[in-house]
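Hey all, quick one. A colleague (J.T.) asked me to put the L-homoserine job into the tracker so the inputs and the structure tokens live in one place instead of scattered across chat threads. No bug as far as I know, just bookkeeping. Sequence used:
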Amino acid sequence: MAVYTRLGAEEMAGIIAAFDVGTLISAKGIAEGVSNSNWLIETEQDGTGRRFILTIYESRTEVAELPFFLDLLDHLAARGAPVPRTMHDTTGASHRLHRTAEGDKALALIEFLPGVSVSEPTPGQAEAVGGALAQIHLAAADFPGTRANTMALPAWQQLLKDCGREGLESLHPDLGTLVERELAQLAQSWPTDLPRGVIHADLFPDNVLMLGEKVTGLIDFYFACTDLFAYDVAVTHAAWCFGADGSRFDPALSEALLRGYMAVRPMSESERRALPLLARGAALRFLATRAYDWLNTPADALVTPKDPMAFARRLQFYADPANADLFAQKMPV
Ligand SMILES: Nc1ncnc2c1ncn2[C@@H]1O[C@H](COP(=O)(O)OP(=O)(O)OP(=O)(O)O)[C@@H](O)[C@H]1O
Ligand SMILES: N[C@@H](CCO)C(=O)O
């Protein structure tokens, strides 16, 4: 379920009329996604059918940050990266404010891209995703915007502190100890001097649209920020190489993802050496947000929180000395 804002037919037609995209034919609420309200919009313009995604931003997205996210889409799309363009309204604005019963909310109309999100990726698909990730890292090199990573180590520390040791141990008796040990080690050794730029920071399979082994769309840039490129590789590795419950590390997916990335943007020796630590950080980042949501989502909420233990298992895997050579051995030169 992800349509939090109710819109009548006339209201929807009025929203679409502010953009030069033709006449509204249909608007269907999209079930996937949890943060914002999304609709698939069909219009007709000069006898041609067109499709878009309408997003109404709910409370989790800061309106002041929308220009960074939306301008970034335009910038990457203009450089040939597989990301949707933002449709600008007739005044040239990338987003608009819409009056609703709960107050003004921002909205944007985004190009619809074909493709589906895979749930059991193949090595060929992982390789293509690695390549697309490197492509956006390179394509954003001359993007003028910057945004601090609001989901970096200090945020994990705070979220995990808010969960409390008891809360974490209610998820698993060993989780408090694991988290404490990892937080301390990461705080001590987190690298700061590696190549950085704009990263996606949340490139899970549900944020990638694919047709066969081709990436047709990278979406959901609402965690994009300025941070280490190699950390983005680590996030994508954690998201793609373990199966949904985090217990099935797949070396073929890992190798293919890294090969795909390196073919487009070769990583330096220091980036490669940092990957095991960055992967522990990536696993802890999603463990932190998921544990917090798990412990703080009311039982009658519309959304089901995601399983934090799926990322505790990844964290244990990355932190296990037996897997220390994971990136070194599998990394093509
Ligand atoms: N540009 C696009 N082209 C085609 N489909 C899209 C596009 N953008 C979004 N979608 C569809 O809408 C769904 C919800 O989008 P999205 O994941 O951005 O929602 P969200 O609520 O903002 O995200 P999240 O759940 O990660 O917080 C996607 O799973 C995808 O099916
Ligand atoms: N991708 C995140 C959700 C926030 O986008 C997760 O799976 O925990």
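Adding what we noticed when we looked at it: The pocket of adenosine-5'-triphosphate (ligand 1) is lined by residues 2, 30, 32-36, 38, 53, 84, 110-113, 206, 209, 217, 219-220 (CB under 6 Å). The chain has a mean pLDDT of 94.
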